[in-house]
Amino acid sequence: MKRVCAWCKKELGRVDSPASFENVITHGICENCRDNLLFQMGVELGEFLDSLKFPVVVVDRGGTIVTGNDQARTLLRKGLPEIEGYKGGEVFECAYARLPNGCGNTLHCSGCTIRRTVMETHGTGRSLLRVPAMLNRNTPEDPEKIKLLISTERFADLILLRIDEMQTKYAAQPVAEPAGEH
């Protein structure tokens, strides 16, 4: 799938996707437009994220959540103090994140699609689109399996992790615009 800057239309390369979307264009933001948007125009990161129409959390190189937009906080049912500075598995309530070695350091973490997708985008700079992931989540009642579709985009030295869809054992909750439009 081809990726272009949503502001200046500069080609940004291709995006890996589990489905075949050869003629579909998806959008990101190039470094120049990002700098103009966030710095020269005085737009704060939180304001920019809250302007997005889909849930996004910002992840640093160590797998720690830097912040999340309004839509992500609503979906996760958490406020900023419960998101900022916590490992991704803690924020998403992964059943393995509370083990003695913690999120990112257990045997289960090596197979975590969410973690691998974020780290791959950190390492390669390549965006990944609508990657299927499974999360074993702790809940007050019973552990539950959550199916997700996630997308990643590198943003300076951070990763924007978009939650495209979240499906629990009860019902699917589409949370983003149609594929290829963002």
Key structural traits:
182 residues, alpha+beta, six-stranded antiparallel β-sheet, three-stranded mixed β-sheet, 5 helices, 21% helix, disordered C terminus
Any overview of this molecule?
The protein is an alpha+beta fold and 182 residues long. The chain has a domain at 51-174: Beta-Lactamase (2-Layer Sandwich). Helices cover 21% and strands 30% of the residues. The protein is built from 5 helices and 9 strands. Strand 1 and strand 2 (11-14) form a beta hairpin. The longest helix is centred in the middle third of the chain and has 12 residues, at 113-124. It is globular. Residues 170-182 have low confidence and may be disordered.
Write a short abstract of this structure.
With 182 residues, this protein is of the alpha+beta class. It has 5 helices and 9 strands. The longest helix is centred in the middle third of the chain and has 12 residues.
How far apart the termini lie comes to: 14 Å
Structural class estimated from helices and strands: alpha+beta
Largest beta-sheet characterization: 6 strands, antiparallel
Order of helices and strands: EEEHHEEHHHEEEE
Known CATH architecture of the domain at 51-174: 2-Layer Sandwich
Average pLDDT score: 80
Annotate the secondary structure layout.
Blueprint: E1 2-5, E2 11-14, E3 25-28, H1 31-40, H2 45-50, E4 56-59, E5 65-68, H3 70-76, H4 88-91, H5 113-124, E6 128-137, E7 144-155, E8 158-167, E9 172-174
Parallel strand pairs: 1-3
Antiparallel strand pairs: 1-2, 4-5, 4-8, 6-7, 7-8, 8-9
